[in-house]
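step=predict obj=Outer membrane lipoprotein-sorting protein n=269
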Amino acid sequence: MRRPAAVLACLCLVLAGCGTTGSPGGDARTVAPALAGTPTPTATPETPARPPGVNASASGIDRRALVAAHEEALDGRPVTVRTSRRVVADDGTVILDGFRRSRTDGLAQFFSRRITETPYRRADGRTFNVSYWRNDTVTVRRWPDGNRSVTLDTDVPTRQLFDRTGAAAVETILSGYELQYAGTTTRDGETLHVLTEASAEQRYRPLRTNVSLRVLVTGEGFVRSITATYRTDEYGRPARVTVEFRVTNVSNTEVPRPEWVDEALAEDG
């Protein structure tokens, strides 16, 4: 008559998880099984801090702060700055093809500028090609004339020169655009902040349409590159304009001293 009660007592012990074996001290130990395919938690990557002038608020981009940060980040450092502007009419005629390059090592600077222009009233083009070399004491200009002669000049107003860091070019190119922040991208292992145009139509005179603008800004605060394309009228003709700006060889730019520099100084002295 007592056997059913004993069986019931044993069953209660099994359902309660009690056993004859356990950890020392009588404390039970529960082990959760590992589930296949369970994801391993990973650290959330930190969001890169935005450079000066690139605001997190909806107010947009502070262009003045952006230009000032660019100037400050590159001031006194070796750097190569290239700017180009190409204007092509709808019939394929190259109306304007301009290129500027500045190389500075922090002391000397070599600046060259070449512009080929084909105004609508002329069948041929005209090319403006000039180079400057300067240091803290002298500026020399080389100016090829149309008759293939070359003019060397050491009497150059230094106030008209030079945009060593490219800050003036950045300010000019971005002037009038409504900019917006578009996240980050990586190029050659460098994290860059992306700015784009807020509208495909900019209220210039003449009007710019089909605007595409992409600005890459480094974490240091200087503008690494700008690429802008748009449609407008040039010399009264519908045309497509492409503007490019590039900063390269930061802290690694060498400035050559052309032979014509010493030639000009010898003639002047």
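step=describe
The chain has four helices and eleven strands.
step=end
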